[in-house]
Amino acid sequence: MNAIAITLSKEDIAAEARRLGAALVGFAPVGRWAEHGDLSWEFDPRRLWPLTKTVIAMAVPSLLPVTETDDAFVYRSQYNNTNQLLDKIAYRLAAFLNRNGHPAINICRDGYGDGVMKIRPIAVFSHVWAGHYAGIGEVGWNHCLVTAEFGPRHRLVSVLTSLELEGDPMIQEGSLCGKCLMCQKACLTQAFSGDRKRDRRSNMNKFACFDRRARFKTAQHCGFCLKVCPTGEDRELYGTPTVAQYLEERRRIFAKNGVPLDPIVSHEP
Amino acid sequence: MPIAATKEVIATQARALGAELVGFAPAARWDKADVASGHRPSDLWPRARTVIVLGVPLWLPVVEAAPSQLGREQIIVTDKLLDEAAYRLANFLNRRGHAAINVPRNRAGEPEAPAEATRVFSHVLAGELAGLGRIGRNHALLTRGYGPRVRLVSVFTELALDGDPLLAESLCTMCGNCARICPAHALATGSDGKSTLDEAACFANHNRLRAAFRDPCGFCHKVCPVGDDRRLFGATDTAVYFEEAAALAENPFAPRFQPWLHIRKYGGFPLPEDPPSIR
Lengths: 269, 279
Known about the structure:
The structure holds two protein chains of two kinds. By secondary structure, chain A is of the alpha+beta class. Chain A contains 13 helices and eight strands. Chain A is 36% helix and 13% strand. Chain B contains twelve helices and eight strands.
């Protein structure tokens, strides 16, 4: 640890993040949380750590062909592996900043103890909103961060630092999520609802989303709202520009599990 | 033909793999230290000539919010990082023709680990013998940079390397903060004046927190005044930890403590000691 801080530019920090494995890196001045008011003060980064001046958001992609596989085990492995990679990247980026005299802490992937999600499905910090304010993407109808590169097919992590850095420009509203509602239509549990003329994003019933494990023996690790999103350069890379095929797959999953198509699900916990 | 590997080359590789602290201890140092038979490097692996100790810090703002699920994640992430760095450093040495093994992080305090299995090798003692710090009254390795807020792992190699100088002076100020704050009352002073640790009491508290996904406790780490990290994070006042309970009883929304309460509230189950405002 250096008693005298070594000057680091945004470029230095972003280069270190990429060297450690991050695919997308963005910087969010902490004032954006209060300025935009999407979250209550309780979820302002300063509530977690009062010295925070900048939030560094980082993402790694979830590879589309794995995300769209109906072998839940393969997708779950990808999910766990990318989370572990992100945690390591974020810890080491915080160590890099601290070593150079700039206080920083990494916020680990939002783990929940088994069963905690059922009583309080809220994380201590939202990496999705951090990505939104850092200009990595736009929070979409499906409550995921929709990015130009990977649509919502990526995982996120954050580092808080007391170093003041210039913010990256935010994504213009509506430019990445066109509210096509494919995520709402494809969802196995009807977790999304709302009026696209009135609402910026859907209401999401997290309890309905968790409920899928009890209702579907297959599709334990679901990801329909991710793979169905038409946004993302990865669709072209993998030669899967269309999304209608997922609605057909959805019908097959209901039939395979003996669940009536489009059941009315309770939206109470 | 083995390829030469100097201390500098090995330390540089360890840092590239993520270690923030690196120290070297000749295995012979264990013979002079007060170590029970069966717990020396040569007891685990007779060819061990040098022990390379790697360390990574824990961030004080997370440590002092314990018990929390975020604190639990911080331990999981740093332990994984250390185990991977140690394994890869052992392979780095093996590739160059110098036999080496890594001794993974132990699982002390985990319910499935029998007590004796947790004591095969002490990374804390290894850290002291590698000159990374000195063992304090709280039985943890106190370092200049981060006090006791470090995680450690060890690599054994048959390569003979010079040991790093031991820290001559104790870093522990004997302030007694750790013994006073310990919720398990596990730290005491024996008749010989040495600090004693009631491991069963410490583990029982650890397992209680673990059941709520909010281990570890770490109170004896957060209260330690040693460490440059206290200045870095602007948290040099350790009296605040002793004032917390009374201050929150008077005003559950005392601003000074809200960050810790926020971190405790999410991701794990409630604990009896939580104030009503976060249940």
